[in-house]
Amino acid sequence: MTGFFHLPGWAMQAARRALYFWVRTTTLPENTQELELDADKPVCYVLQSPYFSNLLILFNESAKINLPPADIPFHANGQVWPGAAFFLNPKRKPADEERHASPPMLRALLQRMQQDAGWDVQLVPVVILWGRHPDKQESVLKALFSETWRQAGMLRRALTLLLHGRNVLVRFNRPVSLRAITRENLDEEQTLHKLTRLFQVHFRRQRLMAIGPDLSHRHTQIDSLLETIPVRAAVAAEAETRNIPIEKAQANARRFALEIASDYSYGTLRALELFLSWLWDRLYDGIEVHNIETVTRIAPGHGIVYVPTHRSHIDYLLLSYTLYRQGLTPPHIAAGANLNIFLIGPLLRRCGAFFLRRSFRGEPLYAAVFNEYLHLMITRGFSIEYFIEGGRSRSGRMLPPKAGILGMTVNSFLEEHSHPLVFVPVYIGYEKLMEGRTYLRELEGRPKQSESLRGVLSSVRKIRKVFGKVYINFGEPLPLARYLDDHRPGWSKEARPVNSDWPRTVTLGVAAELATRMNEAVVFNPINLIALALFSSPRHTADEQALHRRLAHYQALIADAPYAPTVIPCLLTPGEIIAYALRFGVAERIAHPLGDLIRLKPTKAPLLAYFRNNVQHVFALPALIACLLNNIRPLGEQEIIEVVSGIYGLIRTELFLNLSDRELPAATRHVVECLVGRCLLQQDTNRQLTTPDSSRQEWLELQHICGCLRPILEHQFLALALLQHEGSGTRTRAALENDCLLIAQRMSLLSASDASEFADKKTFSALISHLLDANLLRKDDSGLLHFDERLSAPLAQAERLLPAETRHAILRMSCAAMPAQQ
């Protein structure tokens, strides 16, 4: 190994120039201050495998980013080493071999430290990956010869250098103090063994973070899965229950495992990345990524479950692509069995997708195999991705999370929790959806179209750069162990009875928390802001100057009364937002002598309700205060807090809002202060709050803020009024949901509003679920819904927030429409 260093200086310089004639690198971190090097201590670099090309890259990159140079002589234990670097694996052994002879230079460094009590050295591990450059690669052949877990031979190494010399990722890691990690009372050999293992684990984690786990052959993996105790027990039960031979039950289990399991191929994944780079460049004007450092900070040493919002089929491709481009391993994705179609299914499977059926009902063997497969993935440290909403949101709002695969994840961790597991919520936002028209048709009552190869191929025709930008924001991670410690102290030592309910309770709590954190990671863009500002206007039209003011109010609320630290604001000015919407084609200017008007294009307006709903929850508290004071005035600040506290609970569960009962009073005061500062509320000398006079511009602007929440309040009032009108115990949940939907659709048609604005069955379903969870509704054995006088409170609260004409219209429509349905 040290022969590399002993080449003459001119030879090393010539070799470096020759290498960099072809090689191009990306070096991380971009800011070397993140390494927190101590300028008073010497630095020695640690490389994993003895490749001359890696050594030359280290020499060049350390000098280029102004780190202590690696190619200068280093004095240690009376010896002069030709460079400040050593290879951890001095002999050519498999990359995952953990037992190695200690590097001579590491031994010399340790001996010098033992002889000099005041001396220390900073050991900086350096990971160099060929074929993991964040830039796009140029061919599938390159993808097949990029970085793997196997040690490359001379021929493969030469091919790797030739094919991937333009795509080299160099990652300098934070230094390790030699003295800090050798304080235990160990002899020299034990200390060297400990140091070698420590760095070996570090390099394994870095490679795991960048290229994913080292996977065994798929059939070997399935064989080990079928030999697990739970699956064997399920096979025996299947044979007995269905009265079939044990061999047939085993064959069924294998068939299920093959149906479920991924067939992960990193070469295929890289090849797909080439296609996606081409595709995104033709579909989008760019992909903005925020808070990726959240993931890079926790990725080493943690199992990660990515939990993104589900808006489009594009979601999982975008997230995997983004992680890959950031030097992280793409996750294994839980995909619906409906996507396991000809050609598409095998490709997704090779890229890490594993498939699950919509329901496990009536298939206990399938459930056992899937549970054990997921457990295998989690315990082996695979990163995973799934959508807890269950399906794509057709309205743009967060859907109530499902407990299915999330519950399996929690139970798997409860069974074996030696490896930390962290949930990472991810917000994915668009400016235009490929499925937008399809969503509108479904909201109008048309059946959902099933996925097919023909449908995928027809989507290719949409490859035009008309979809704007995509925004990806990584929210606040949720370590599962910490959540369990807070909500179930002593959980790790607690025996779990077979029929114990507390894991499900924990799962539901985790689901709600993740949905809340996904909402906290919202990204504001010009399209959702312009939709928010114009949707509450008659005919979706506003005077341009008034629209400027309206957008400024929204941006002030985002900045001065922030919803969450992870919210990403839109940094464009109101004028730039309007210009962007006009250029993007969702709005149009109407020239007028008294001042230009801006309106949503009639053909685009129904689709834009979706994007307004993406960010609606951020303004729920300001809108709630505005609605309250609009109908009841004047009110003191404490009165507002008391009334808001009574109303906020139901809205919180429906929109997954983030304020607890304890945090709500302070947040309410903060929002009131902001609204007063913007002259949207007035406060007299007795600190009584009221709205501006109806003749003033600010009064109209406050009405638009009310409009952010009004559709939700109308949903609630419709469902509650319908229950009260028909009485307790008269209809089932399904009937109530259907009646609500029919009335909402009819009201939308009669009022010429958009179906996506009001008639979404999932919204009514979520509301009824929240009423059941709050025990305001009760379902009897026959499925009929019962309630008592306690339901009057939320009805009265909703009534206090809606204008009289809106309340009367809903009541009149409910009374007039229901007899026709009976």
Secondary structure elements and pairings:
Blueprint (H helix, E strand, L loop, with lengths): L8 H12 L4 E4 L14 E5 L4 H13 L9 E3 L2 E3 L3 E3 L16 H12 L6 E9 L9 H5 L9 H11 L3 E5 L3 E2 L10 H24 L6 H9 L2 H14 L3 H15 L5 H18 L2 E5 L2 H6 L4 E6 L5 H12 L6 E5 L7 H7 L2 E4 L7 H16 L4 E2 L18 H12 L5 E10 L5 H8 L9 H7 L9 E6 L3 E2 H8 L14 H19 L5 H10 L5 E3 H17 L13 H11 L2 E4 L6 E4 L4 H11 L4 H12 L3 E2 H19 L8 H14 L4 E2 L4 E3 L6 H10 L3 H17 L6 H19 L3 H4 L2 H13 L4 E2 L5 E2 L5 H10 L2 H18 L1
Parallel strand pairs: 1-7, 2-5, 2-6, 9-15, 10-13, 10-14, 11-12, 11-13
Antiparallel strand pairs: 3-4, 6-7, 6-8, 14-15, 14-16, 17-19, 18-19, 20-22, 21-22, 23-24
Helix pairs in contact: 1-2, 7-9, 8-9, 8-14, 9-14, 14-15, 15-19, 20-21, 20-22, 20-23, 21-27, 24-25, 24-27, 25-26, 28-29, 28-32, 28-33, 29-31
Helix content: 40-55%
Which percent range describes the beta-strand content? 5-15%
CATH architecture of the largest domain: 3-Layer(aba) Sandwich
Instruction: Characterize the largest beta sheet: strand count, sense, and whether it forms a barrel.
Output: 8 strands, mixed
Shape: globular
Number of helices: 33
- Please indicate the count of domains: 4
**Class by alpha and beta content:** alpha/beta
Low-confidence stretches: 92-100, 133-145
Q: If you consult CATH, what is the topology of the largest domain? A: Glycerol-3-phosphate (1)-acyltransferase
- Report the C-alpha radius of gyration, rounded: 31 Å
On the 0-100 scale, what is the average pLDDT? 82
Number of strands: 24
CATH hierarchy, class of the largest domain? Alpha Beta
Q: Distance N terminus to C terminus?
A: 87 Å
